[in-house]
Design brief:
Largest sheet: none
Low-confidence stretches: 1-27
Oligomer: single chain
Mean pLDDT: 87
Helix content: over 70%
Shape: elongated
Strand content: under 5%
Length: about 325
């Protein structure tokens, strides 16, 4: 916090080449430790420039005056490198990474270095620096011992960085690899498998592999419903994706049958008084209206209208949509 960083700032001299005309505590690691904690506090306080400077000074002192042996370096390199990635200081990052690599290799803790690469990849990916994230993810793949037990996570991350870097064919290969590993070790009923299958379906779609994408989404629907996870956030989106594919390929009858099955499945499991059931009925009503099935459309619209009014109130956006659709329907009679 601000108070903590102020206290440390008072006891750690700043300014000059090494923030002091002499090394505090005769060059012991105490000074480096204090700078490490100062950098951490600045980071928590979102003072990134000051945080980076504290980390940079601490690392340089440890290398120049403590022969790179300061115990704090074990944690310091990670904070320093990740902060450089966050601030997009990639030239400086590339200069320090080989030094950090040698440090962890000497301690026989190279997996810590690999973990730093993973964090760097995530930070850059979150900032939509996909080409750069893909580059560091490639470096991460060079440390197979780090993957042990986390293979599918690393493979999927590589798929996402490749996809972001506009290499959808490469992304497809890695996402398949992640899914195969996950299926073998976690099974298709696991939540992580459904997450990876959803990503694979999307990558198929972006590679214009429509049939493969549709089959993946349909498999996803089957798994989610079988395991009673219909309420997970991306299930509605999955149904929309299936409908979009049917729509684009002019398979309106298949789309209609698909939605009728979702309605029946939802009713059988949870009854007819849920927001999801209302959502399904509203979608069905639109499909039926566009196909000239006006009586069926009216029945489903009335169900959706009643449920949204009951569950969300007359000011809800969903209730307003059902009224809008009701108006369109009445114009067709």
């Amino acid at each position: 916090n601000k108070e903590g960083s102020a206290i440390i700032h008072k006891i750690v001299p700043t300014g000059g080449k090494h923030s002091s005309p002499r090394l505090w505590f005769c060059g012991s690691s105490a000074y480096v430790n204090a700078l490490y904690f100062l950098g951490s506090m600045y980071s928590k306080d979102n003072q990134d420039d000051k945080s980076l400077e504290a980390y940079r000074t601490a690392v340089q002192l440890a290398i120049d005056s403590l022969a790179g042996e300061a115990e704090t370096l074990f944690y310091l390199y990670g904070n320093y490198c990740v902060k450089l990635a966050e601030m997009k200081q990639l030239e400086e990052l590339d200069n320090i990474l080989p030094i950090a690599h040698n440090y962890y290799a000497k301690l026989d803790t190279i997996n810590v270095y690999a973990d730093i690469l993973f964090l760097i990849t995530n930070r850059l990916f979150d900032q939509r620096m996909f080409d750069e994230a893909d580059k560091y993810c490639d470096s991460l793949l060079l440390y197979p011992s780090y993957h042990n037990g986390y293979e599918e996570v690393i493979y999927s991350k590589k798929a996402m960085t490749s996809f972001g870097a506009k290499h959808p064919d490469v992304a497809l290969q890695w996402q398949k690899k992640a899914l195969d590993y996950c299926l073998k070790h976690n099974g298709e009923n696991s939540i992580i498998y459904t997450n990876y299958l959803s990503d694979l379906a999307y990558i198929y779609k972006e590679n214009s592999l429509t049939e493969e994408s549709l089959n993946s989404y349909l498999k996803l629907v089957e798994i989610i419903e079988k395991n009673n996870r219909d309420t997970i956030p991306f299930f509605n989106q999955t149904i929309n994706e299936v409908c979009d594919i049917y729509n684009e390929s002019k398979n309106i009858d298949l789309e209609y049958q698909f939605m009728k099955e979702r309605k029946q499945c939802s009713y059988n499991k949870y009854g007819s008084e849920t927001p999801f059931y209302a959502w399904i009925c509203n979608l069905l009503s639109v499909l039926e209206m566009n196909s000239g099935k006006l009586e069926e459309a009216n029945d489903n619209n009335q169900i959706a209208e009643r449920l949204y009014y009951k569950l969300e109130g007359q000011k809800s956006k969903n209730y307003a949509i059902t009224l809008h659709n009701k108006g369109r329907l009445l114009m067709l009679y």
